[in-house]
Amino acid sequence: MTQEKPSLLFGYARVSTEDQSLDMQIDALVKFGVERDRILTDRASGKTISGRSGFRNAMKAMRPGAGLVVWKLDRLGRNLSELIQTADLLRERGARLISLTENIDTETASGKLMFHMIGMFAQFERDMISERTKAGLAARRARGTKLGWQNPFGPEHEKWGEVVDLMRQGLSFVEIAKRIEGVSKSTLYNNADDLRAAAAVLDASELNHETSNKGE
Fold this sequence. Notes:
By secondary structure, the protein is an alpha/beta fold. About 50% of the residues lie in helices and about 10% in strands. The protein has eight helices and five strands, in the order βαβαβαββααααα. The chain has helices spanning about 25-30, 55-60, 80-90, 110-145, 160-170, 175-180, 185-190, 190-210, and strands spanning about 10-15, 40-45, 65-70, 95-100, 105. The chain has a five-stranded mixed sheet, sandwiched between helices. Helix 4 (about 110-145) crosses helix 8 and helix 5 (about 160-170) packs across helix 8 (about 190-210).
């Protein structure tokens, strides 16, 4: 990475449990050139954005000319959908993303291409969720009170939103299945990708609203 470093360079480091050490990540960020007092940290599993105050504060600092440095991309998200939505939020704010392990810098030609592709995937994911939700609502209206119709689990299911909300609170599929009658853990695992995508889009939307720099 030979590109000029942004003047507003922030670092983010995360470990999953209290007994794990942040030292290796912090040392790598400092060695790269991030000032120690600009490194935000979390000791959290990454299951929920609400439980990661360091991550939220790092995102609040993101604006044109700023850069976010992480030791590894998976420090930003618990799954691919969340990573895509988070990276797209950085792109929308004109901020730079640097990952040391993967040797990614969105100011390089390859990095700019990656940001472009991430933006496409993020919008595609949001559009797909919107289309499935609309189709599900239309199907429910058309179905009316027909008897014998088995409602498949998906965005049109009456308990879909409740499942996504519980996921965003950090509950596992096993825990959710115990709470919601009529929804088995196997059903949740079979729909895991779509559920995670829905949760990631909502998390990103909430984070964008909360940490928006508009009007500052």
